[in-house]
């Protein structure tokens, strides 16, 4: 089948790539429709590795996906041929200790699309466990369906934050994950979000998504804005989505006493935070690694119209333009948030 193959660092090709996949009794076969380009896909392209995961042989990219079911395994009862679906890209060992304790995202044996040596889904079809395949409501498009994966990270962050209705949250970083975290925080009950970044076009877009106050930290003072909006008390929640060392060093300053910080963005280098500053506020600190159990909730929020990811989909490419799409994503203009590839209509 034709696939977008990362041959090695800096080298992508759209070419015939043999993939043999047998359909097990609990699997479905899916024709791909839309696949989003993630920062991790781009990072494998430009750096050939993320931490311990190193691209050692040609690998198909892509893990943010939607599609249509073309075949169902004999034991599958909740899905049918023709169902429009999106898929959770990480498949854990169902018998692992982590999975049995409900933390399947933390299973060390998890097989995650486009994480070496596991192939991704920028290709015409894939076989996937039915348990990790979710039906889309009729009013949710394939493009939105492919946004469920990044949104799931924001959903996990909002869940870990234990939002109380009316909380004020700060989201640091207006990239795709910062944006979906802000949307999930608002859907989860936050009254408003203060969003920080240094790229003004991203902040301008964020301000259109809901009760979001953009703060360009290159020229504005975050502390002043937080003081003004909270009468000097501080934010209930801080979501660190930038992965930036300077941002992480300052997460406790705008937090209210007893507030919570959630680390969402993955720093590329080890970073430090101020433990003493956390102590004087008895700050609760949470971390997220991907997500678990949130796909149905993310889809429900999209289906009901409570959460809209469409403004985040800024650039769409055709499958035959996949290499160009990735070169675009490497040098993404500040006006863009999420680029997607339409594999098939
Ligand atoms: Zn992703």
Question: Could you characterize the architecture of this molecule?
Answer:
This protein has 345 residues and is of the alpha/beta class. It folds into two domains: 2-147 and 309-342, Medium-chain alcohol dehydrogenases, catalytic domain (Quinone Oxidoreductase, Chain A, domain 1), CATH 3.90.180; 153-287, NAD(P)-binding Rossmann-like Domain (Rossmann fold), CATH 3.40.50. The chain is built from eleven helices and 20 strands. The strands form five sheets. Strands 3, 7, 8, 11, 12, 19 and 20 form a seven-stranded mixed β-sheet that branches. The chain has a six-stranded parallel β-sheet with strand order 15-14-13-16-17-18, with helices on both faces. Helix 4 (148-161) crosses helix 5 and helix 4 packs across helix 10 (295-304). The mean pLDDT is 97.
Number of domains as seen in the coordinates: 2
Q: What ranges have pLDDT less than 50 throughout 5 or more consecutive residues?
A: none
Please tell me how large the radius of gyration is: 20 Å
- CATH fold naming of the largest domain: Quinone Oxidoreductase, Chain A, domain 1
The CATH class of the largest domain turns out to be: Alpha Beta
Bound molecules: zinc ion
Beta percentage is 25-35%
Distance between the termini: 17 Å
**Number of DSSP helical runs:** 11
Structural class by sheet pairing and helices: alpha/beta
């Amino acid at each position: 089948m034709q696939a977008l193959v990362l041959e090695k660092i800096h080298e992508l090709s759209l070419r015939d790539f043999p993939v043999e996949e047998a359909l097990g009794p609990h699997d479905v076969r899916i024709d791909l429709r839309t696949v989003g380009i993630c920062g991790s896909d781009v990072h494998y392209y430009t750096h050939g590795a993320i931490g311990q995961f190193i691209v050692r042989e040609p690998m198909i990219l892509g893990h943010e996906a939607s599609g249509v079911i073309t075949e169902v395994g004999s034991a599958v009862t909740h899905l049918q041929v023709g169902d429009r679906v999106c898929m959770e890209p990480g498949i854990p060992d169902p018998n692992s200790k982590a999975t049995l304790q409900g933390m399947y995202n933390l299973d060390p044996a998890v097989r995650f699309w486009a994480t070496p040596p596991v192939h991704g889904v920028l290709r015409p079809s894939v076989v996937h466990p039915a348990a990790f395949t979710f039906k889309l409501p009729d009013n949710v498009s394939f493009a939105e369906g492919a946004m469920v994966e990044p949104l799931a990270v924001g959903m996990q962050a909002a869940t870990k934050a234990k939002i109380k209705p009316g909380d004020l949250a700060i989201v640091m970083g207006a990239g795709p994950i910062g944006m979906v975290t802000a949307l999930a925080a608002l859907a989860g009950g936050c009254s408003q979000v203060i969003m920080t970044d240094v790229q003004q076009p991203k902040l301008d877009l964020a301000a259109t998504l809901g009760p979001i106050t953009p703060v360009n930290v290159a020229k504005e003072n975050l502390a002043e804005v937080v003081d003004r909006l909270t009468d000097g008390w501080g934010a209930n929640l801080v979501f660190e989505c930038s992965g930036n060392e300077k941002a992480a060093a300052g997460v406790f300053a705008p937090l209210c006493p007893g507030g919570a910080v959630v680390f969402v963005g993955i720093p590329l280098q080890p970073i430090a935070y101020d433990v003493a500053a956390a102590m004087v506020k008895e700050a609760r600190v949470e971390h997220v690694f991907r997500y678990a159990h949130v796909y149905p909730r993310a889809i429900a929020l999209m289906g009901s119209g409570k959460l809209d990811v469409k403004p985040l989909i800024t650039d769409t490419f055709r499958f035959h333009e996949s290499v160009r799409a990735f070169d675009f994503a490497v040098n993404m203009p500040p006006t863009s948030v999420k680029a997607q590839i339409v594999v098939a209509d």
